[in-house]
Request: fold
Amino acid sequence: MSNHTPSPGTEERKEFQTEIRQLLDLVVNSLYTNREIFLRELISNAADACEKVRYMALTSPTLRPASGDLGVEITINEQDHILTISDNGVGMTREELIENLGTIAHSGSKSFLSYLSEHQEQAPDLSLIGQFGVGFYSAFMVATKVVIQTLSADSQADACCWTSEGLGSYTLSAGTREERGTSIEIHLKEDAFDLGKADKIKQIINKYSNFVPYPVSVNGDKVNTVEAIWVKNKNEISGEEYDEFYKFYTGAYDDPLGRLHFSSDAPLSLHALLYMPGSNMERFGFSRIERGVNLFCKKVLIQEKSETILPEWMRFVRGVIDCEDLPLNISRETLQDSTLLQKLNRVVASRLLKYWEEQARDEKTTYEEFWKEFGIFLKEGAATDIVNRADLLKLLRFESSITEPGELTSLDEYVDRMTDSQKNIYFVSGPTRASIEQGPYLEIFRESHMEVLYTYQAIDDYVLMNVGSYRDKPLQSVDQDSGDLPDLGPEKSPQMDDTTATQLTTWLKEVFQDKVKDVRVSKRLVDSPAVLLSMGGSHSMNRLFQSMNEASGIGFPGNAFGDILEINANHDVIQGIERLRAAEDPFATTAAGQLLVSAQMAAGLHVDPRLLSAGLNDLLARAVQTPSHEAS
Ligand code: ADP
Ligand code: MG
Reply:
């Protein structure tokens, strides 16, 4: 069948979509390590095709039947250096060939290209290709030509043949396949002839495709071991087997960060084998990773990538949940809102939370490694999952004013360190540790030796504000005006007489008009001339609103609730502005304007760059006018 020549007129040449062409260009032309993974990708597609048809057969009686049991057969023609990977799975219609292997919907190729350009090495490692949903194209790492013969399970469809040399185009023609399924013929490149040997192929299958749930044979010999290891006893499985199963099951190339394997009889009879992946794929240009836990009943797949089996924020978890209490003939629709599934969800979610809690206690470094990769999901959970919130709060980690950079602390540890006089748990937000520590907000806390948690992401503030308190201690953002903050005490209080202070603050309020709600003398500043406090949410929340307003074209409105500018009456800048004001020097207004802009920037708020640069030019003009003997 490999030498089939389509009759003239039925053959049609088609171009690959641009991104696929770029991907193929890379795949075909460079030198790679790990080229053998192409086999894993093709076997996994063949097994997927078997799984699809098995599932379809449950509901659709009119499928084109297959002759034997579902499985994958590899035949090797050592003489001509041709490998054929054949399955009796779902097959493809002509339209499906075009759609799946040539034209549309392969957003994964784009993500994969950008992933590769981010990881530019001399010989790029393409082994992650399968995770980006474009695994099929890896065939062109080793092939000069790929010929697909396929006959769809749809009994109306005709056999079809797809051929490509991995350049810009492929051809479609009438196919010769008489049985349902797909055969993929790989004509090996000369430098890949070593892959055309049965022993080598068996070795590769054992390495990558051992747990494929359908038999895989090479020239007639069955190679893989099919086993549902999640129903086995923990002590019968080695760490290596666990990792191997994970890689097969998820298509991942790296080891998992951790796993939880347990069985229970009550309240539900279940086996679960769950993994924390080695890396967070949402960071590689994927907007949202798919769910990764499949639901089985007595080793039979019931629901793939179940949306209901775990809380949404646990979508990074991969693995298997096998529940014997599920009725086998349950339909997809009833599965969505079954109370049994909700029960399952609660049982498994709380086991996972307990697992992380124990890990955080007993294996701190491992937990922190996990936290760095997946902490963002736990934060999402703390913000959205009311049922599990209390357990999630214990798992949150932060840097703080007393930790070393990179060292983390928990809310419990913070509370344990609080002195009797401290009422609140304080936190401050900023993009980095350095920017937080250089800003004006920490000054009073440094003076009074109080710990402040550092939050680097808007979601941290969102969570902490929503939660409100932890172990009865109110959570308070240090850039908020509400609540009680420590102050400097009488001995360091401002050295400006009350009349002057009132005159200055009244004047500043006139200058700023509606840009701030109030101006007052601060009891919390040491080194900075001024600080902006928020009357509503924290500045980082306001920043979020600002971004939304900007995106919707409203512009740069300030905080909807209003800000308060506090000034440091002891600071040279403030005293200088006061002298200019008293002398009725118009430059006082320019200087005051810049004071506010600086405070807004220290708050991390967006400042209109045109206003900023106009103000800076005025300051510059003044500075260059001043003779150096006067300035000193
Ligand atoms: P993925 O497997 O992640 O979807 P691939 O690039 O490996 O991405 O495959 C693309 C698509 O081509 C598959 O989703 C499937 O629809 C189709 N396909 C590939 N191989 C086969 C096969 N042996 N039988 C049926 N369909 C297949
Ligand atoms: Mg695939």
User: Anything to note?
Assistant: The chain is about 40% helix and 20% strand. Residues 1-6 have pLDDT under 50 and may be disordered. The first helix runs from residue 18 to 29.
